[in-house]
Amino acid sequence: MAAENTGSMQSHHQAFDVSINVAPQVGSKCYDDDGRLKRTGTVWTASAHIITAVIGSGVLSLAWATAQLGWIAGPTVLFLFSFVTYYTSTLLATCYRSGDPDNGKRNYTYMDAVRSNLGGFQVKVCGAIQYLNLFGVAIGYTIASSISMMAIQKSNCFHTKGDDSPCRVSSNPYMIAFGAIEIIFSQIPDFDQIWWLSIVAAIMSFTYSSIGLGLGIGKVAENGKIRGSMTGVSIGTVTETQKVWRSFQALGAIAFAYSYSLILIEIQDTIKSPPSEHKTMKKATFLSVAVTTVFYMLCGCFGYAAFGDSSPGNLLTGFGFYNPYWLLDIANIAIVVHLVGAYQVFCQPLFAFIEKTAAGWFPNNKFITKEIPVPVPGLKSFKLNLFRLVWRTIFVIITTVLSMLMPFFNDVVGILGAFGFWPLTVYFPVEMYIVQKRIPRWSTRWISLQILSAACLIISIAAAVGSFAGVVSDLKKYQPFKTAA
């Protein structure tokens, strides 16, 4: 399956689409109803993709986010975000096919779904937000991976030289190493071929989340009490202004921890049918969000219970824990392996979009379209595309350099969560569902959906303001490319 599975520019590039429209094969044993090779995804592979995308580095900032909000608002906000994410994801899943949800025309990407249901200017807005967000996620994951690699070096240093040793470490070599690995993995042609990477990454996410949870429980037992308060970090520890900004930033961090709607349609396009894709996707969404929410509640709450107001911004790298150092090393290695896979899960739709667009604009350019078979001993030959090799390599280099310029994990996470949550997780799914189901304007259902959308918009704006305030504060005392303490 070539990159068609994840990207499509049908309405703009009809000439290119003709080349993949193999109608005579429709309905055969090897092809789906759209003439493409049969999709093979199941509820389990879809769940693996979602869990890989969702239980990312965001889980590690949840103890900090809970600390800003307190014992009442923290868990409540976590649950509300999980409910909204699940509900709007089920709305979005019904928009994979236009018209009839079982037999209608397939939408291969999020942008295709918006084009079919809303059209016009909204398609461009959706594309800009989605692909900017994917680009931002790549930067966020590069930062997070380097922090985990630094934490391994630091924990070994503390173990050898004592907890009070300076142990100065630079993040730059680790970001470069992560970028080099991603250059190699980014040559995997399309989404359908990274299912194994998603399963490995999902296993890794459970590994480090479980270790973080176990250490949190152990710390609570060691303290002999549950730390924290009903209202979170108290005024005095921080100023009133900081309390407001940090609470807003916490909303962004939680929103980021749940964000995967921007690749939901692309994941759904890997699912085989029957049963209908939207039914399988709803099951995968329920399973994934339920598992994720349990983990998030446990990690966020036990992390806060262990450290109270001093909960670190990153549970496994903020050095709330120093021992057992080997267990921290395992957890951080798991984070890095997970982020290698998660980077690909998020970037494949962006890669496919650029390559589809380029092939549509220059259909006769051999540099863009020619596949060169490269023999691989013991396996079938790898199809090398020079344009894919060059542009994806440049993309990874750019994200790596930007990560080195601005390595503020919590702030970047908050901005990404705020920027993408309302439009991609709430607004577009709600508006497309209204069109798809022909819900009458001013009906009870229409008003309820609009109230949900408006409430989430307010949360997104608040989160964005808080996160930008955090970046401004960090930039006052930060020098790029310097060794961190």
Automatic annotation (TrEMBL):
Pfam families: Aa_trans (PF01490). It is found in: Cell membrane. InterPro entries: AA_transpt_TM. GO terms for molecular function: symporter activity. The chain crosses the membrane at residues 43-65, 71-96, 131-152, 195-217, 286-305, 325-346, 389-409, 415-435, 447-472. Keywords: Amino-acid transport, Cell membrane, Membrane, Symport, Transmembrane, Transmembrane helix, Transport. Residues 39-472 form the Amino acid transporter transmembrane domain. One of its GO terms (biological process) is amino acid transport. One of its GO terms (cellular component) is plasma membrane. PANTHER family: OS05G0424000 PROTEIN-RELATED. Belongs to the amino acid/polyamine transporter 2 family. Amino acid/auxin permease (AAAP) (TC 2.A.18.2) subfamily. This is Amino acid transporter transmembrane domain-containing protein.
